[in-house]
């Protein structure tokens, strides 16, 4: 029997500024050459999250991956390297001095390539990323048949076509917290709709859920002590209360606001056929949407996840802060393009 091979996965990204110059670094480990910022993927970390994290740690710059430009293998060290093309989002160059000697935007044309890039394998992947016409799409999945969870997708295209931003992640990873941070960052005058909050008892145990409008109105939609015969797990669901509340605040947001907040498009909420139709209507009308969806598969929610206009963003407690800046920038750009 052959021993199962073990491989390391590394990620890096090519990012240009407005002049077309590429952000490069020199490291203590390879001081003689410039290279793309990047590093190894942590256990349980998806590739697009890893490259954003590494880029931010090494350069202080927030990026948005667009797609994969190339995949490369180091046979001796068993390292698989995935290179992304990415957009600059925000931030000023601030290096991590323990690892990085220098970071700068460089003009990499044919006459200067050899001056900056001293290792042929690095030159190869940089040239591929510079010359690629269409980046390759990338998806992250959690596969446990018959349960198939799409975690994230990058289409290989610039994200300025996206207007529907849906956060996904494990329960209690802070999706609703991030929604509220984004509302505060962009301003409540731009946002309408609702988010979901937990109801806890005196021992801080979760006993239910309430929906809260951006304007502050709220209604309890689920409770362990609810007499409702409609139940998900241990929670009794009041579909009538949720439906009346959600449809009202979403309609007000359609009329008065730029960004429609729908937290959550979840199993409880999708028990309402009227809510399902309203969500489909909002997306089909090319509205700007900030929402959340569960990781678990659901036939109607899955249809929404796979819509081309949807940007599905996986979050966890380690990536929330990076994603906050990225999403706020994307949403504000979507608002500007809609004016």
TrEMBL record:
Q: Which PROSITE patterns match?
A: NUDIX, NUDIX_BOX
Q: Which UniProt keywords apply?
A: ATP-binding, Hydrolase, Nucleotide-binding
TM annotation in the entry = none
Under the heading SMART domains, the entry gives: AAA (SM00382)
Q: Which residues form the Nudix hydrolase domain?
A: 6-129
Which family does the similarity line name?
Belongs to the Nudix hydrolase family.
Q: Which organism is it from?
A: Paenibacillus harenae
What is the protein named? Answer: Nucleoside-triphosphatase THEP1/ADP-ribose pyrophosphatase YjhB (NUDIX family)
Output the Pfam families linked to this UniProt entry. NTPase_1 (PF03266), NUDIX (PF00293)
User: What does UniProt give as the signal peptide span?
Assistant: none
Q: Which domain of life is it from?
A: Bacteria
């Amino acid at each position: 029997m052959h021993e199962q091979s073990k491989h390391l996965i590394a990620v890096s990204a090519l990012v240009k500024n407005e002049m077309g110059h590429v952000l490069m670094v020199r490291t203590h480990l390879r001081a003689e050459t410039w290279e793309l910022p990047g590093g190894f993927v942590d256990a349980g970390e998806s590739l697009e999250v890893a490259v954003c994290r590494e880029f931010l740690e090494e350069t202080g710059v927030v990026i948005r991956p667009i797609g994969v430009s190339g995949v490369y293998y180091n046979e001796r060290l068993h390292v698989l390297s995935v290179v992304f093309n990415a957009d600059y989002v925000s931030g000023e160059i601030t290096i991590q001095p323990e690892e990085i000697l220098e970071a700068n935007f460089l003009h990499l044309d044919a006459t200067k390539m050899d001056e900056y890039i001293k290792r042929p394998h690095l030159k190869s992947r940089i040239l591929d990323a510079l010359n690629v016409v269409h980046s390759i799409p990338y998806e992250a999945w959690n596969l446990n048949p018959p349960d198939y969870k799409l975690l994230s997708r990058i289409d290989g295209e610039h994200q300025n076509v996206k207007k529907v931003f849906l956060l996904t992640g494990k329960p209690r990873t802070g999706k609703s917290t991030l929604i509220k941070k984004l509302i505060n960052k962009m301003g409540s005058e731009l946002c309408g709709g609702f988010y979901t909050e937990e109801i806890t008892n005196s021992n801080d145990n979760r006993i239910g859920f309430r929906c809260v409008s951006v304007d502050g109105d709220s209604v309890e939609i689920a409770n362990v002590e609810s007499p409702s015969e409609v139940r998900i797990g241990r929670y009794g669901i009041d579909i009538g209360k949720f439906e009346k509340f959600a449809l009202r605040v979403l309609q007000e947001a359609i009329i008065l606001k730029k960004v429609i907040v729908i937290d959550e498009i979840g199993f409880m909420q999708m028990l309402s056929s009227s809510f399902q139709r309203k969500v489909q209507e909002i997306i089909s009308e090319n509205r700007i949407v900030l929402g959340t969806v569960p990781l678990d598969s659901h036939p109607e929610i899955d249809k929404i996840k796979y819509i081309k206009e949807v940007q599905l963003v996986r979050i966890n407690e380690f990536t929330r802060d990076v994603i906050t800046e990225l999403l706020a920038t994307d949403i504000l750009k979507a608002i500007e393009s809609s004016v």
